[in-house]
Here is the input.
Amino acid sequence: CKAVGMRTPVRKEGSELEHGVVAPWVKDKCSGIGENCLDSRCCHAVGHRCYKQSEYWAQCKPSCSTEPDPEDGNRTWDCEALGPESWGLAFKGYPSLYCISLFMPSSYEGPLLKEHLKA
Here is the structure.
């Protein structure tokens, strides 16, 4: 076998989920919420994991129960975890945030914001 990309992080059961920068391949290789992750065995969404429903379907979910799922036609799930809990798509660190700034351009805030953006 030839190593490709970074190694998937492993954590001990019950320990806090570590946060950090994920590898760029996660965006292309891992599955999104509600997508079949049977082949990828990894998820985009923060705190989600790939859980197996059957031999044909697995899905990225925050948790899983073997009870009948009302959001899935009352089907039961196997709930075998097929991969690690996801860090999410924070490529520059965790958490990934949107930063929004409002300012009044005619006041002192305009030049102050321009100077801040140069830094």
